[in-house]
Structure formats: C-alpha cells, structure tokens
Amino acid sequence: MDAKLPPRPSPMDAVALLSERPADKLARGQVGTVVETLDEATALVEFSDDNGEAYAIVPVALTDLMVLRYARLAAE
C-alpha cells in the first residue's frame, strides 16, 4: 500500500511550520503564506502580524510545512 503524500504548498496557501526556526525567531506552529515555490524542495514563506506587517520572509523546506485547509475535506 502506497502512503499518500501530503499536498504540496502552492503560492498563496496558508501553511504552518512543523519545526522550530530559532535563527529566524519562528516557533513551531506559526502560520504563514507561501509567496513563491523556489524549487522542488523549498518555498518562500511570509509570516506577518495581525496588521499584515511582515516580520519574516524566509525560505522553508516543504517537509517543514503543513498546508492548512479551511473548507471541509474528508480524510481518505
């Protein structure tokens, strides 16, 4: 049985960090927006405050991101 791969983030997707990034002052679970896919393994993600002010724009490995879903989606 093949394990289904998690969805790849696309530009404008909301994502959550799956690991700590102390050098960038980002904690596990922080939510950002994918700005651009840099290559097959990395995305540029913007993290902003409640006023929309960006406090970090950093490249993140796709394996360290979880795409957030806001619509009802049944698990398979």
What is the secondary structure topology, with strand pairs?
Elements: E1 14-17, E2 31-39, E3 42-48, E4 54-61, E5 65-67
Antiparallel strand pairs: 1-2, 1-5, 2-3, 3-4
Properties at a glance:
76 residues; mainly beta; five-stranded antiparallel sheet
Written description of the protein model:
The protein is mainly β. The chain has one domain: SH3 type barrels. Helices cover 0% and strands 41% of the residues. The protein is built from no helices and 5 strands. The chain has a 5-stranded antiparallel β-sheet, with no helix packed on it. A hairpin with a 2-residue loop joins strand 2 (31-39) and strand 3. The radius of gyration is 13 Å and the shape is globular. The protein starts with 13 loop residues before the first strand and ends in a 9-residue tail after the last strand. The relative contact order is 0.28. The model has no long low-confidence stretch (mean pLDDT 90). It comes from Rhizomicrobium palustre. It holds the Pfam family DUF4926. This is DUF4926 domain-containing protein.
Task: Summarize, please.
The chain is 0% helix and 41% strand. The chain has 76 residues and is an all-beta fold. The model has no long low-confidence stretch (mean pLDDT 90).
Mean pLDDT: 90
Structural class: mainly beta
Q: Provide the helix percentage.
A: under 10%
Radius of gyration: 13 Å
Sequence of secondary-structure elements? EEEEE
Q: Output the number of helix runs.
A: 0
Model regions low in confidence, pLDDT < 50 over at least 5 residues: none
Distance, first to last CA: 13 Å
